[in-house]
Amino acid sequence: MIFLIAAKELKSMFAAPLAWLILCIVQLLLAWIFLSRLDTFLLLQPQLIQLAQPPGATELILAPLFGSAAVLIMMSVPLLSMRLIAEERRNQTMPLLMSAPLSMTEIVTGKFLGLVLFLAALIILTGLMAFSLSAGTSPDLGVLIGNLLGLVLLSACYAALGLYISCLTAHPVLAAVGTLGALLGLWVLDVSASTPESLLSWFSLLKHFESFNRGLIDSADVAFLVLFTFTFLALAIRRLDADRLRG
Description:
It contains twelve helices and no strands. By secondary structure, the chain is mainly alpha-helical. The mean pLDDT is 86.
């Protein structure tokens, strides 16, 4: 049933103009960033060849591209997650969903998986864009794989938080604003931290993405992102269970 719910959510997303608009805008912005970095890299070639250990396409193109993708996905998720539960409440279809022979875990997991699969399409397209560099250079595959894994884990965190906030209201716009505010708040924690080792920066999602962006898979960062995702999925399940008990 989880995969049926996920397939239904994914189908409804691709049936909505908003999802296609987000997909197009994000890819256009990433393509512009990619071509701009590529152009800069080509212009710097005369200076780079004079260095003993010059930075390559991985450092000058791939890392900034995936860093920008992390931010753009963060901005996109609130618009995609706002309707997951809030729209069910607004359309008064939530009681029908709760009365179905489905557990709240199946409902939450299915909707979460549908959103993550849509975000995976964004990530795959970004990965193909980065992989196109192999036609003219040799990008570091370790950095490429690390960034793809990091984006998947980061997107799962965004989706779980957005799904939970969507459970708190019957107004999709409020859910979108709340999710965006929460995600920006977590980003600001890193900016406002006095030192990189500050406790505030530890709660920043993008801070935990930095190691992936360098091609390093840190078990502590993986554990934090996975724990963050499961925490908000558990909170969403608990919230819907409480709603079901209240009738």
